[in-house]
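Appendix B. Raw example, untouched.
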Amino acid sequence: MLWTVIHIIDITLWVVIAASVVYVVFFAIISLFYDKEDRVATHASALSNKQSKFLVLYPAYNEDRVIVNAVEHFLMQDYPSDLYTVAVISDHMKEETNAKLAAYPITLLQPQFEKSSKAKAMQYAINNVSGDFDHVVVLDADNVVRPEFLSQLNVLCSIYEAIQCHRCAKNANNDVAVLDGASEEINNTIFRKAHNRLGLSSALIGSGMCFSYDLFRKNVFALTTAGEDREMEALLLRQEVFIKYAPDIHVFDEKVSNQDNFQRQRMRWMTAQVQSLLSLLPLMPEAFLHGKINLIDKTIQQALIPRSILIVLLGLMSVLMTIVVPEWCLKWWVLLALLGLALFIAIPAQLRFRSFAKVLAIPGLVLRMLKNLLHIDHKNTDFIHTTHEA
């Protein structure tokens, strides 16, 4: 009787974990396919001579260390300066930082929020920056872009209302930063590139995003949580707006460099994932009824087990079953091998060796993520700030 119960638990746990693994494996394989139609469309749009007018938003909460450098780099754009406006929403930043920013040809906003959030900062900017804009770009305070950034975006803007650029690491100074950067690239492959390959919308990240101005203004005031990117994505999918992933338009993002910052960052992400899942579940009957595949897929994404937890769980279960009940272990080793293969495919070739060499750092990071599970409050809307290293 006892072994029957254990066997049922073993099978149940394997099925639950296998669902997340199969999702990752499927889209990793899809990412290998060549997207000919997308390249043709991009080439056709390049023939257009229209130049859009951009509003570039930098929500900056306590970002004194990185914001000035980010703005300096952005102002090196090869795009006509009269066709873009940079707006920094300075929230709880030092007077000396604001003085430096005020010296640049930008719009400096200094709101006084009782409770700060990125959503509030973007809403404030839309209410206070006037102009006849075609598109809105959202960047984080640590994001650095190349001079051709807006010129590249302008090409795609003639086709797509919502674009997610290729956010990638600008630092790899220790194990945590390397793994954080690798995780970002895996997300780019699985949730962005592969999804576009199937005609599905890309996931949003939170920065390196571009929207038509009217679309952004229509939806930004509906954002209420710290997971504003997931909220925005769900809103767009409900309106059946396609989100394009632009793998060749890079946004360089500073990766977390210590385990405390990693834990804070993942706490924010995990809370946002739970909130997003709970908000999407009631929409599923309507989504199935009207065939809203993107919305269904997004809900499934929110229910997936985080990959780093998957790796540790599968490793532990494979070893445990090999020791306790060898007859049951094969299915666990197969699942672990499939996950490893999918991650190998999803990580860009130039990062594979460095990323897999840091695998021993994963258990410690997973322990911190599991600790977060005890503190997730799906009703919490407070902004959890991730600090940058000095």
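End of appendix B.
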